[in-house]
Amino acid sequence: MDSAQNIPIKTPRIGFLEAVARCLKKYATFKGRATRAEYWWFALFNSLLCTVVYAVFYDRMGMETAESMLGFVQLALFLPALAVGVRRLHDINFRGWWIVLTITIIGIIPLCIFYCLAGKPEENRFGVREV
């Protein structure tokens, strides 16, 4: 057996700020690939931003204003979240159309499992991994 097969490939890690910047830079880019870290860091950013916006506006101006501002934030982050989800599916060599499973409530479960799968560092039909 070749000893080179037993050596794991080390891939550089992506941090929170870099992942968020990359997702916002690729606002509506559905081509390419996104690593697990890039997807999950952006999901965390999206959740934290929505929570903070809602809490601040709820405290200052009430529930109706908080819900309106939350709607604006969610609308602004909808395309980047959709795009990074599609790119994440590309990383595990799935077509982006699998994201349509979110329409069904039960379809969110396999998508979460897909988003947790490790992508291959080598090139696939959707291109090479950036990181």
Give structural attributes.
0% strand, single chain, mainly alpha, 131 residues
Topology at a glance:
Layout: H1 16-25, H2 36-61, H3 63-91, H4 108-116
Helix pairs in contact: 1-2, 2-3
Element order, helices and strands? Answer: HHHH
Quote the average pLDDT: 90
Q: What oligomeric state is this?
A: single chain
Tell me about the largest β-sheet. none
Structural class: mainly alpha
Distance between the termini: 29 Å
| Structure annotation, total helices | 4
Report on the structure:
The chain is built from four helices and no strands. With 131 residues, it is mostly helical. The mean pLDDT is 90.
Summed up:
The protein is an all-alpha fold and 131 residues long. 56% of the residues lie in helices and 0% in strands.
